[in-house]
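Annotated sample (chain length 160).
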Amino acid sequence: MPCASAPTRPSALAGLVLIALLLTCTATPGLAQIALEPTQTLEEWQIEVGVPDGILQLSGQQHGFYYRAYHCPSFDIAQSIVAMLAEADAGARPIAMDVAMEEQNCRPAKGEYQVLILGGEVEITRGFEAQEYWTALDVRAGNGNAAGLIFDSSPYAIRD
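Output written by the structure step:
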């Protein structure tokens, strides 16, 4: 049975309600226990996104409220956040994403990342032609460390 919807307007109360929903609906606090399968191969995704060599260069710049990608401590965390968002009510996804990123220590991504594995994807709609397609990626950061990324691969994404 799906979990209840969270409020769609940001507020301290909405954040607390969302956290309570996340804790109630998952076995691991804040993380969904389902995995999303990619809908295309890594090679297809790289061509579609415009990185045929699989190397993402990210500035870490904020564009209004938006960052192109978020660096998470691991691919499992990135994949779990995307899976949790897929289970959330579409209207609650923006707030759920903000809360999950903070709770799981995912920060704006900056630098070079080599994409190794393509994970699940979830759509967040913010208005007309303002869809974001957040994709979980298993990556190797420029410093050689393994990490997870949550990357907006939509055609409307701001090119970082």
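Annotation: DSSP finds four helices and six strands in the chain.
Annotation: The chain has one domain: 12-152.
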